[in-house]
Write a structure and sequence with these properties.
Length: 317
């Protein structure tokens, strides 16, 4: 399909202006690089010898090598190991390290150790936002963000989390802010160039976006968190100390019965005033994951996916 798109671009190029032809050329080069990455890594991806238990063991061993004051518990290693396994396998596009305090140096060291043990981790990159550490699958994450860029983010739901707009429902991003699209383009370009296992610091390319919005985009949420104007004080955040509707994407192994949470994000209950908005976002998340898992034939035959929603009465975020 990619080659068909390239052929179509070549046909229409004669009708474009000079700037438009340059944009098409740069897009084709980016797609060419992504395709090369895919073919180079396909053998590692399909022949990943690791299981979640193997990855957890390596993460736990790395934790035991740290100083006594910073040693990881097995439960922490299990949580992080499961997340990293699904990211490396491509089923999950990204994860946030929220089960432990992980420095940038420790994050890159852990990724280097995992890459040496399991070649499939060569596709995983570390992202840093202030004190937060994310791991992303470079190839599949870039592909997902290219879709967001192509749609100018109109495929996402826009959620205003400023308290004055707490009664408004999520809307389609028909007119996405330039800063959002600029961030997505900068993120894709940076990810395509960074050499593994280096860490990419996103603070230099996110000056005008609130951290909540950046985290949501990196975690590939189907919504974009935004404020009506300049970021208000923390007390004006509608996500703070308000009833929340939590969407959780769960993958289940039908053979063993084990379940794993792949994506979890929340919306203020006041923002979801009509049930159809909940249904649409729930369906979009489910369809996107099912479509992605179908590309992994070995996995799709034993895994099932479903979305659950729960309401939390009052949570401090």
């Amino acid at each position: 399909m990619a080659w068909a798109v390239a052929h179509a671009l070549a046909v229409v190029a004669t009708y474009l202006t000079t700037n438009e032809r340059q944009l098409c050329a740069s897009t084709c080069k980016l797609w060419s690089g992504i395709l090369k990455m895919e073919w180079r890594g396909r053998a590692h991806h399909w022949n990943m010898a690791a299981t979640a238990a193997n990855v957890i063991d390596v993460v736990n061993q790395c934790g035991q090598c740290r100083s006594k004051k910073r040693i990881w518990s097995y439960k922490q290693a299990q949580t992080l190991g499961n997340d990293l396994y699904f990211v490396a396998s491509g089923i999950r596009l990204s994860c946030l390290v929220d089960c432990m305090n992980l420095t940038a140096a420790a994050a890159t060291t852990l990724l280097a150790v995992l890459t040496k043990a399991f070649p499939a981790f060569a596709h995983v990159v570390t992202l840093l936002i202030d004190d937060n550490v994310f791991y992303v699958h470079r190839l599949h994450f870039i592909q997902a963000k290219l879709v967001d860029i192509a749609y100018n983010a109109s495929n996402l739901e826009l959620v205003n989390i400023a308290k004055p707009h707490a009664n408004s429902v999520p809307t389609i991003c028909l007119d996405a802010s330039p800063s959002t699209v600029h961030f997505l383009r900068s993120l894709v370009s940076s990810l395509a160039m960074i050499p593994p296992p280096s860490a990419l610091d996103l603070t230099t390319i996110t000056p005008s976006l609130p951290p909540t919005a950046v985290a949501g985009l990196v975690l590939n949420y189907p919504v974009v968190y935004t404020f009506s104007s300049q970021p208000p004080p923390p007390t004006d955040n509608a996500l703070a100390m308000q009833p929340l509707v939590v969407f959780e994407l769960v993958i289940s192994d039908v053979n063993t019965g084990h379940t794993h949470s792949l994506v979890k994000y929340s919306l203020p209950q006041l923002l979801v005033t009509h049930p159809n908005h909940v249904a649409v976002m729930r369906a979009n998340l489910l369809v996107a994951c099912r479509r992605h898992i179908l590309h992994h034939e070995a996995t799709s035959s034993t895994m099932s996916v479903h979305v659950t929603t729960i309401t939390l009465s009052s949570v401090a975020l």
